[in-house]
Design brief:
alpha+beta, elongated, single chain, 6-stranded mixed β-sheet
Length: 317
């Protein structure tokens, strides 16, 4: 009988230690609630761990919960950055693709973008001045200066299959590369924001209003992109500022149909500046199975709160 309190305490400690790991069970089942939690997860787990650990430092169950919560935050944040080996691109068939959110320093970033010598370049938050500058090096291009504010520049001819609209914050294009055609979904997805009424998607950039949608609206747009990938029988590439953290449900919606081309190396946060503490990787380059990637890297963009990305992608060798 004397051992019963000890057994109960031990069980309580075990339960407290396991409880934070339920995150990996519920994260895709609780909808917008866990979508929001995923965005702030590194800061949230740190705060919870510190508060619970300090207030309950004399109770082993509280300490177990605090330590376990911190570990969950570490695993959930850094787990999606682990390289998984995307395979080798077939010799002579690689396509160098770069993407960047140019931010407020539109023309300041022109030399950086041109210096990449990318075969295909996708630029978010673009305006007319940068479009005209890049068009000198890329005669084949399309751009929308309103709504998603995105431009696509290619060394090869482009066919527009779908223009920006309510279900597509960007373009669906066919790239007529000499090594083989592929379809490109180049998007700038509005950020998910809990204060949005859902009406700000596709607004003109000169309104001064934020480019955002509701968390549920963001999920719907990601599902629409995934549906286009699923029904396309050609090689598909998805890239741009997706405003989608790689620890969230929407990232897993995409990677159920696509491979993360940037994970031939370690991942890293792509957003810097005032959002750096969230450790979010929201800019992505993904390819449909059958294509691989190599020589991926991130690069600074002048005056932007994003790092750009670049990778060589193509049919697997």
């Amino acid at each position: 009988m004397e051992g019963e309190p000890l057994v109960r305490r031990s069980v309580g400690i075990v339960i407290a230690g396991l409880l934070p790991w339920a995150w990996f069970v519920v994260r895709d089942r609780a909808g917008v609630v866990t979508d929001v939690v995923a965005i702030v997860l590194p800061m949230l787990t740190l705060v919870v761990a510190v508060v619970v650990g300090v207030l309950g430092r004399r109770r082993r169950a509280a300490v177990a919960f605090a330590v376990s919560t911190l570990l969950v935050g570490i695993v959930a944040t850094f787990g999606p950055w682990i390289p998984h080996g995307t395979g080798t691109v077939a010799a002579g068939r690689g396509v160098r693709v770069a993407a960047a959110n140019i931010g407020v320093g539109e023309l300041d970033g022109a030399d950086t973008l041109l210096g990449l010598h990318a075969d295909v370049l996708v630029v978010s938050e673009i305006g007319q001045p940068l479009t005209e500058r890049l068009a000198q090096a890329y005669p084949d291009h399309v751009a929308d200066w309103n709504g998603p504010s995105i431009g696509i520049f290619s060394r090869w001819p482009l066919t527009v299959l779908e223009q920006p609209g309510p279900d597509l914050p960007g373009y669906l294009l066919r790239v007529h590369a000499p090594t083989g055609e592929f379809d490109l979904i180049a998007v700038h997805v509005p950020r998910p924001w809990w204060t949005s009424d859902g009406s700000t998607y596709a607004q003109s950039t000169d309104t001064g209003r934020p480019y955002e949608t509701t968390v549920a609206g963001h999920h719907r747009l990601i599902e629409q992109i995934a549906a286009r990938v699923q029904r396309d029988d050609r090689p598909v590439v998805v890239t741009g500022d997706l405003n989608t953290t790689d620890r969230g449900r929407d990232y897993r919606v995409l990677t159920s149909h696509l491979k993360d081309a940037m994970l031939d190396h370690w991942g890293r946060p792509s957003q810097i500046g005032k959002w750096a503490a969230l450790l979010v990787r929201i800019d992505h380059l993904m390819v449909k199975p059958g294509w691989c990637s190599g020589d991926s890297s991130w690069y600074p963009v002048p005056k932007s709160d994003h790092h750009g990305l670049i990778s060589t992608i193509g049919p697997c060798g």
